């Protein structure tokens, strides 16, 4: 039986902290494609208060989440337990990108591991609905380790490559919605 929660209490925070990954879903206001992205690295998610969380946004295959948040702000994050205790937790809310060259990003720094070489910014979400469900059909899986491939890939990228991505595949969503601004800072310009 699903339960709705009034806030991110200690038990929910504990459950979130035990998960090795989460999923992010967004969609444009009109037509277009729904985006669903898996996210890893445990040091990239933080509950900031009873109704707010944030996660580090790393360069990936595009900028769908950023474009959709600029369009309408709607976002759902899902945590799914793969252990013996089955549970799914969904956090529904309104999100926004916090650029890494902003004063607000400086206030977020203590919550994260900032060593990821593909750091693009932070997504901050104000939660308006918190609900869980059983997850009875989710398989049991065991974590072997965090996958280092993304950090390794970004660690080998040059400043020019990141700059080309900002004005290239990160400038718009696959549906043509604006994503990163042309003056978005490259990762090497972000103080660590």
Automatic annotation (TrEMBL):
Bilayer-spanning residue ranges: none
A matching Pfam family: PNPOx_N
PANTHER family xref list: PYRIDOXAMINE PHOSPHATE OXIDASE FAMILY PROTEIN (AFU_ORTHOLOGUE AFUA_6G11440) (PTHR39336)
Domain Pyridoxamine 5'-phosphate oxidase N-terminal: 8-132
SUPFAM superfamilies attached to this UniProt entry: FMN-binding split barrel
Species whose genome carries this gene: Nocardia suismassiliense
Protein name: Pyridoxamine 5'-phosphate oxidase family protein
């Amino acid at each position: 039986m699903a339960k709705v929660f009034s806030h991110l209490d200690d038990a929910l925070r504990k459950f979130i902290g035990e998960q090795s990954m989460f999923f992010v879903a967004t969609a444009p206001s009109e037509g277009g494609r729904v985006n669903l992205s898996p996210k890893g690295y445990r040091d990239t998610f933080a509950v900031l208060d009873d109704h707010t969380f944030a996660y580090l946004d790393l360069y990936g295959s595009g900028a769908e989440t950023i474009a959709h948040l600029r369009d309408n702000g709607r976002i759902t994050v899902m945590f799914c337990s793969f252990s013996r205790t089955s549970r799914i937790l969904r956090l529904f809310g309104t999100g926004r990108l916090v650029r890494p060259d902003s004063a607000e990003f400086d206030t977020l720094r203590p919550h994260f591991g900032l060593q990821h070489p593909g750091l693009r910014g932070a997504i901050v979400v104000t939660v308006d609905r918190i609900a869980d469900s059983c997850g009875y059909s989710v398989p049991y899986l065991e974590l072997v380790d965090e996958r280092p491939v993304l950090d390794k890939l970004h660690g080998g990228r040059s400043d020019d490559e990141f700059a080309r991505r900002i004005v290239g595949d990160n400038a718009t969503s696959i549906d043509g919605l604006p994503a990163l601004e042309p003056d978005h800072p490259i990762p090497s310009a972000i103080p660590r």
